[in-house]
C-alpha cells in the first residue's frame, strides 16, 4: 500500500500545482492536457460510497490501476463504472486476489 500510495500522492500534488497554473494559461500543450486529465481520473478513483468502503486490497488495486496509466484511455465519467466492473470481474474470476 505504501508503494502505491506514495506514487499517488506525488501525482496528485503535481496535478494540483498544474491545475492551479492552468487556470491562468489560455492554451496548454498536449502533455499538460494529458497530465490534467490523468489527475482528474485519479481524483475520481478516490471517491467511495460512505456506506460501502473498499477493502484494502481493492483500494490498492484501484490506486495501482490509476497510477500506472490503465485508466488513461477512459473519460473521467467512465472511471467509476470501469473500476466497479474490474473489481466484480476479479472477485468472480480470480478469487485468489481476495486472499
UniProtKB/TrEMBL annotation:
Coiled coil: none annotated. The keyword tRNA-binding does not apply. InterPro entries: ATP_synth_asu_C (IPR000793), ATP_synth_asu_C_sf (IPR038376), ATP_synth_F1_asu (IPR005294). Residues 1-97 form the ATP synthase alpha subunit C-terminal domain. It holds the Pfam family ATP-synt_ab_C. GO terms for cellular component: proton-transporting ATP synthase complex. It comes from the Eukaryota. Keywords: ATP synthesis, ATP-binding, CF(1), Ion transport, Membrane, Nucleotide-binding, Transport. GO terms for molecular function: ATP binding; proton-transporting ATP synthase activity, rotational mechanism. This is Putative ATPase, F1/V1/A1 complex, alpha/beta subunit.
